């Protein structure tokens, strides 16, 4: 069943506001995310109208100029002066982090809408999204029976698909000894699932520990865990919307 768009997006925004108070170290990015999520919610709601995403670029740039962190605000100013570059941001896969941000903000809600209205096989173990072929941004444990079943969460359309517990989503390593898990006391429902074979990691949001978590938002809030993983020379499989 397709999720109600109002409840889905409103819950993300509400969760970001909750975590902003609970995790001071992530307060600034979570405040900014709330602004961006409100903007994306309107794109999702208008998806049936097939309005051109290009028409949303200037409103987004103006919003980020006003509310975004300094590097993104400067990038928004630069792009405002160069409208010829806008279409290429939507058509390709920008490597410049700021450009990738603007592209994903606009494309993500439309991709999520399309995925929610498609028939997708979600029970296949694969390392890329079964709908849009993007890499996963997080793992999610959802309650099942006495424990939890592991899923992967797409970095673009937020589709979740089943994935084996003891398997690296990057290189396919299966040896338990090569797949360490790291936890932080302040975030008991989130953990770093690393791979010592390929030196990549993914964060996992465990809904069996905290049923109020919203995976795509709680993953954003766990910035300290990304910083810790980077210090240990692990590389994230895919960065989230805010570049962490």
Q: Sheet with the most strands?
A: 7 strands, mixed
Structural class by secondary-structure content? alpha/beta
Shape: globular
What is the number of domains? 2
SSE series: HHHHHHEEEEEEHHE
What do the pLDDT scores average to? 93
Instruction: Report the span from N to C terminus.
Output: 31 Å
Fold and architecture overview:
By secondary structure, the protein is an alpha/beta fold. It has 2 domains: 112 residues, no CATH class; 101 residues, no CATH class. It is 41% helix and 17% strand. The protein is built from 8 helices and 7 strands, in the order H-H-H-H-H-H-E-E-E-E-E-E-H-H-E. Strands 1, 2, 3, 4, 5, 6 and 7 form a 7-stranded mixed sheet that branches. Helix 3 runs antiparallel to helix 4. The chain starts with a helix and ends in an 8-residue tail after the last strand. The model has no long low-confidence stretch (mean pLDDT 93).
């Amino acid at each position: 069943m397709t999720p109600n768009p109002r409840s889905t997006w409103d819950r993300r925004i509400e969760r970001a506001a909750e975590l902003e108070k609970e995790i001071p170290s992530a307060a600034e990015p979570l405040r900014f995310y709330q602004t961006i999520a409100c903007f994306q919610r309107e794109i999702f709601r208008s998806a049936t109208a097939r309005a051109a995403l290009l028409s949303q670029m200037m409103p987004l740039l103006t919003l980020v100029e006003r509310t975004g962190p300094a590097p993104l605000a400067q990038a928004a100013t630069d792009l405002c002066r160069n409208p010829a570059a806008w279409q290429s941001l939507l058509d390709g896969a920008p490597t410049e982090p700021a450009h990738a941000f603007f592209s994903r903000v606009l494309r993500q809600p439309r991709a999520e809408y399309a995925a929610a209205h498609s028939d997708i096989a979600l029970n296949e173990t694969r390392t890329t999204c079964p709908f849009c072929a993007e890499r996963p941004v997080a793992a999610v444990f959802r309650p099942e029976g006495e424990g939890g079943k592991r899923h992967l969460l797409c970095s673009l359309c937020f589709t979740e698909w089943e994935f084996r517990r003891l398997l690296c989503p990057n290189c396919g390593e299966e040896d338990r000894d090569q797949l360490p898990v790291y936890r932080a006391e302040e975030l008991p429902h989130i953990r770093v699932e690393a791979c010592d074979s390929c030196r990549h990691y993914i964060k996992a949001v465990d809904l069996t520990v905290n049923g109020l978590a919203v995976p795509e938002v709680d993953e954003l809030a766990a910035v300290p865990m990304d910083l810790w993983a980077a210090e240990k020379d692990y590389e994230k499989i895919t960065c989230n919307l805010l570049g962490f």
